[in-house]
Design brief:
By secondary structure, this protein is α/β, with parallel strands linked by helices. 39% of the residues lie in helices and 26% in strands. It contains three helices and seven strands. A hairpin with a 5-residue loop joins β3 and β4. The relative contact order is 0.16.
């Protein structure tokens, strides 16, 4: 069983999602199934089928979260000496050398990745390009729109 790196916040979020699924979503869908059953013929009952489908989605997500938690290797970057090297969980400020645009990303595990929050999977193209590099280094990333070059302006362990 391969360990999955995860940040402290990522683990906390997974556990709270699991609580919600077990204590809120699951009882709601069980109630919806019971309600739909009371309407009679199940073959023609769209509400029943929708509720059963929702139940299957909830159960598969519960299994996936439990699996991730079981394999979790929690990495708390605040407890690591900041030597300017990009590692899992660190926050990296990059400057696009072509457009001069500055962007900050935090390198996280797969379940935590959310580009809208600038949380990127450490095995994504940018993640792979910067991990192990030092503040001040230049990196080249192969993106779907071609090659991009960045300078690592800052590395924080927050």
């Amino acid at each position: 069983m391969e360990k999955e790196p995860i940040t402290v916040n990522g683990l906390k979020d997974l556990k709270s999602e699991l609580e919600d699924l077990k204590n809120v979503q699951r009882p709601k869908v069980v109630e919806a199934i019971a309600e739909a059953r009371s309407h009679g013929d199940l073959k023609e009952n769209a509400e029943y089928h929708a509720a059963k489908e929702q139940q299957a989605l909830i159960e598969s997500r519960v299994i996936a979260i439990n699996d991730t938690i079981a394999r979790a290797n929690v990495i708390d970057v605040t407890k690591i000496d900041n030597n300017g090297k990009v590692i899992f969980g660190s926050t990296v400020k990059l400057q696009d050398l072509e457009s001069d645009v500055k962007i900050t990303y935090k390198l996280v595990g797969q379940d935590e990745a959310d580009i809208k929050k600038n949380l990127i999977f450490f095995k994504s193209p940018i993640g792979r390009a910067v991990i192990g590099k030092d503040k001040g280094e230049m990196v080249t990333v192969n993106t779907p729109s071609g090659e991009k070059s960045f300078e690592i302006l800052d590395v924080k362990y927050i």
